[in-house]
Amino acid sequence: MDFSLSDDQDLLRTTAGSMLARECPTSVVRAHMEDRSVVDALWEHLRQWCGLARGPVTDLCLFLEETGAVLAPGPFLPTTVLLLPLVEATGHELLAPVLAGEVSGTVAMAGSDGAWTPNAQEVKTFVPEADKVEVVAIVGGDERRPTVGFARDLPTRPQATIDTSRRLARVDTGAWRGPLAVLDPDVVTALLERAYVAAAAELLGTIRWLFDATLAYAKVRHQFGRPIGSFQAVQHKLANMALARERAWSAVYYAAMTIDAVDSDRHRAAHVAKAAAGEAARLNAKQAMQIHGSIGYTWEHDLHLFIRRAYASEHFLGTSSWHHDRLGELLTRP
Questions:
Q1: CA angle 251-256-258, nearest 5°?
Q2: 266 to 2, 77, 295, 326: CA distances (angstroms)
Q3: In a designed cystine with 277, which of 51, 68, 112, 248 is the match (CB 3.0 to 4.6 A)?
Q4: Cβ atoms 99, 54 nearer than 8 A
């Protein structure tokens, strides 16, 4: 399989990276901790890219990787990755506004156990950006007969996590009464597999920052009259970080290609992608802190922002262990 980027894809990645570096410095991420409105200006730029959601998953992943590299806050991922497939599957009138970036949204699916499977519980948990978006797609019913309804102005309650760049919330759907559409279970399966890969792609950007920042620090930090990067123990840590990162990158883009090709391996590949990205994130976060030493513990250094996102995203939509379990079930299925 050829993993080389086309000229158009390389231009997409370069253009997105330049725009995000300009519009989303870490000062915006820090300001977002106290004032969520600071990302409104960033959303004005990101909304112009919502059309990627209807194109190849590979292209969307390239863009999301760049958003992960700057910890871009806001509703882009829940709108393009979670909401849009349900809008499209139901033929809802929101399709054109969502693609144009005129309406933002998210999906409320997980119940009290936090598992992203259709259920009839009225209180949905771990709903990304629920208090910021305009539309919430409520997935109910059960795995055999899932349903979806599109609601506005639902009661939300923040769910505290270590990552302040992505806000999660509990959403109470009990009082909402609106039309429900019955979904084909395959639609939900496809939605989740696409979401696993997209979240993993975003995590690749965070991993890239962790590795690049740590490598750069190892070159300039001196101890015993030498750069610490010259010590074999540090080199081994950096090599392991790079290996995990490359393995995750290959797994994510292989999974994206299988989804684009509607290949039968896409079901397994999606779980492999999220698991590999989660493992790489944990390793890179741990070793980044080890190599940075005491400076990495300070509030002024940006390292903690990326470590928070790395660990939180590893849990978002299922941990590596959970995805390994699902992969095992697929491999042993008769």
A1: 95
A2: 17, 21, 42, 13
A3: 248
A4: yes
Averaged confidence pLDDT in the chain: 95
Contact 276, 204 (CB under 8 A): no
Same domain assignment for residues 195 and 288:
yes
Reported as a single tens digit per residue, the pLDDT across 74-128 is 999 999 999 999 999 999 999 999 999 999 999 999 999 999 999 999 999 999 9
For residue 83, give the DSSP letter: I
Residue 285 makes CB contacts below 8 A (sequence gap 6+) with: 210, 306, 307, 310, 311
For residues 136 and 192, state if they share a domain.
no
Dist CA 301 CA 237 (whole Å): 21
Question: Cβ distance 132 to 104 under 8 Å?
Answer: yes
User: Is the same domain home to 197 and 113?
Assistant: no
Letter string b/e over residues 24-50, b meaning 16 or more CB atoms within 10 A of that residue's CB? beeebbbebeeebebbeebbebbbebb
Rounded Cα gap, residues 182 and 67, in angstroms = 33
Domain termination site, one of 183, 207, 237: 183
